[in-house]
Amino acid sequence: MAGSSMKAIKLRIRSVESTMQITKAMQLVATSKLRRAKERMEQSKPYAALSREAVMAAVSSLDDQDTPFVHQREVKKRCYAVIAGERGLAGGYNANVFKAVLSDAGETPYCVLPLGRKAIDKFERLGVELLNTDHGHVEGLGVTACYRLSRLLIEGYLSEAYDEIKLVYTSFQSMMAQEVKIEKLLPIPKAEGVQRPVTTVYEPSVEEMLERVVPDFLAGRLYSAACDAFASEVSARRNAMDSATKNAGEMISTLRLHYNRARQGAITQEITEIVAGAEK
């Protein structure tokens, strides 16, 4: 019985050690990707910030608030641009994004522009209308692809296929913290505290300027959010794999303790049997 128990424990130790090697390798891969992902994220932010500032200033200059990109209409249907991961093994990264979308949607009908394989799979299973399923890889999502997606979103909005567009992504806060954010893209909300620019002259008009700038603004926002989300995903995966590696190490220590106890018990039993035989 003791020999059988020892063999089972030894096989279990080997299995956990094999798993530990995998989690350690995935942690190292995520760590190597994280530096590049953070650099890409930081490089994407200045344009997104400047374009948002320009659009907000233009919106504050509008006298006619019935302009399509600004007019607040009744929300009968909503569109979510959802950025999730390509793979799992990243803790609650993907689950938190989907939970935020379902909570925000409530009973309002909605469609989804999914970015990331996990987002595509999730909303396909839910039977939600998908605008596009071509972008399962967030890591390689470029500016050109984001511009095409922004045009797709705008076409649906202007044709009143949906009345509101929201962006859902995970914002990188630090190595240990990521936060899911829901941001309204269209109609453009009038930001509080933005002063009407006195010296800015828009030609031919603010409305036409917005028609030209908004697609670029949305493209820049999608790209910046994708960079932010990928950095968050890699960081979440690194943390998850680090935790899994530590747990595997603790489990191996516990199993080795059990193995040594079983081995000691087997040795004690053998000695007892030898002594008992000698006494006879």
Total of helices: 5
Distance between the termini: 25 Å
The biggest sheet amounts to: 5 strands, mixed
Beta strands, count: 5
Secondary structure class reads: alpha/beta
Helix content: 55-70%
Q: Strand-and-helix sequence, N→C?
A: HEHEHEHEEH
What is the percentage of strand-forming residues?
A: 5-15%
Kindly report the average pLDDT value: 84
Q: Name the assembly state.
A: single chain
Task: Describe the 3D structure.
- This protein has helices at 2-61, 93-105, 117-125, 143-158, 206-279, and strands spanning 78-83, 110-115, 129-130, 164-172, 178-186.
- The protein is α/β, with parallel strands linked by helices and 280 residues long.
- α1 (2-61) runs antiparallel to α5 (206-279) and α4 packs across α5 (206-279).
- The protein is elongated.
What are its keywords?
280 residues; alpha/beta; five-stranded mixed β-sheet; 5 helices; 5 strands; elongated
